[in-house]
Specification:
Blueprint: E1 9-12, E2 21-29, E3 35-43, H1 46-58, H2 60-66, H3 70-80, H4 87-98, H5 113-121, H6 127-146, H7 173-181, H8 188-195, H9 201-206, E4 212-213, E5 218-221, E6 231-234, H10 240-247, E7 256-257, E8 260-261, H11 264-278, H12 285-297, H13 302-309, H14 323-333
Antiparallel strand pairs: 1-2, 2-3, 4-5, 5-6, 7-8
């Protein structure tokens, strides 16, 4: 029996094929009058093909979702979700997607937990990359659930290498001086910036140039907590030249990379390279510990320390930055002389 016009067709292909029946719809005709087909799928039998064709004509979107590949799912994620995540997460998703290249053309519903785990185990990198790939798959599973493409959540089953144990101690004075001696190494200026401001590295990467007031000698930044948001930190005299140099570079952020905001994944790569050269085992957050420790040792006022760190304390109360308060912060931060 002939199918109605525009309904589609199921055609058997020549050769020895596992799924020889081509299920297709005619989208139109080219300039030579030949039909242009939309492939819906390939099936083992004609009956399977006719069932698929009937399902497509009843609910085309449902069939398109069932045939969605990892590549098309990720492209849709970028279109719908990228604007809702931070630059760091977006950078991580894009880099992790590249490590899943072997499965870009797989139907998402055909990708199993062991496929996902394989991309983690065979990436050839350590904890941060492996964990990033795990996060990528969790995002994809969550998005596929939202679209009703699948009902599984393999991402929660995945494992990655444990984080490399690093020192939680602050930098010693000798190690701070090591960073000064390495100023010619790319991105060491960011380490020094963190050591003399107490900002979290994520706060540093989010810092727009408009929040830097060279005339007043202050930086306004900070996130995470109510006490930490939009706090004022004076520019220490020892790093003023670093801030001035960064202000002259391209990009809207103080620490830009190739004219754009630097993502957390890229920055961690820079950090690891610096630590390898210096033969140290610190995380970016250790700079924050160092900042507080050095201020403490220098005898800085506790209220000033808490204000610059963005910590809530009984001594801080309402966060009102008067001229007197900013002068006190500048006096406190300059107590660190080395």
């Amino acid at each position: 029996m002939r199918n109605p016009n525009g309904y589609g067709s199921v055609v058997k292909l020549s050769g020895n094929r596992r799924r020889p029946f081509h299920v297709r719809k005619t989208l139109g005709w080219n300039e030579k009058g030949h039909p242009i087909y939309q492939t819906l799928d390939y099936t083992r039998t004609r009956e399977e093909g006719m069932i698929l064709l009937a399902q497509f004509n009843k609910d085309p979107w449902n069939i398109e979702k069932s045939n969605m590949t990892l590549e098309s799912l990720f492209e849709l994620w970028l279109e719908r979700k990228a604007v809702k995540v931070g630059a760091g997460t977006l950078s991580l998703m894009k880099s992790s997607y590249k490590h899943c290249k072997a499965y870009h053309n797989f139907k998402y519903t055909d990708i199993k937990a062991y496929h996902m785990q394989e991309t983690i185990d065979n990436c050839g990198h350590g904890y941060s990359t492996q964990n990033g790939i795990k996060v990528f798959w969790r995002h994809m599973d969550k998005f596929s659930l939202e679209l009703d493409i699948s009902t599984r959540n393999y991402g929660v089953l995945l494992t990655s290498a444990t984080a490399t144990e690093t020192s939680r101690e602050p930098f010693s004075e000798k190690e701070v001086q090591t960073m000064w001696k390495m100023q010619g190494v790319p991105w060491v200026d960011s380490v020094l910036f963190l050591l003399y401001t107490g900002f979290r590295f994520s706060e540093m990467l989010d810092l727009p140039k408009k929040n830097v007031n060279l005339e007043a000698g202050t930086i306004t930044g900070g996130t995470k907590t109510r006490a930490g948001k939009d706090r004022i930190v004076p520019i220490h005299s020892k790093i003023r030249h670093i801030v001035e140099a960064r202000m002259q570079e391209d990009g809207n952020h103080l620490f830009s990379y190739k004219g754009k905001q630097c993502g957390s994944t890229a920055y961690r790569t820079f950090w690891r390279s610096i630590m390898e050269v210096a033969k140290l085992k610190y995380t970016p957050h250790c700079c924050r510990h160092t900042f507080r420790s050095r201020l403490d040792s220098a005898g800085a006022n506790k209220r000033c320390i808490d204000l610059m760190m963005g910590h809530k304390s009984k001594d801080v109360g309402e966060r009102v930055y008067t001229h007197k308060t900013i002068d006190e912060l500048k006096t406190a931060i300059e107590l660190v002389t080395n």
